[in-house]
What does this fold into?
Amino acid sequence: MNYLIFGLEIIAIVLWLLFGQHSLLSAIIGIVVIILISQFLHRWLHAR
It folds into this structure.
């Protein structure tokens, strides 16, 4: 489960950088939000 969440996180970050907003600030905020959601899923699914 740990690798599945990590893989989804990488895919989400790549898609956000490709198709998301084109300003640096929104790219950074998007990556931080994706990482926070990933950390929440790790704790919620007891994947750590």
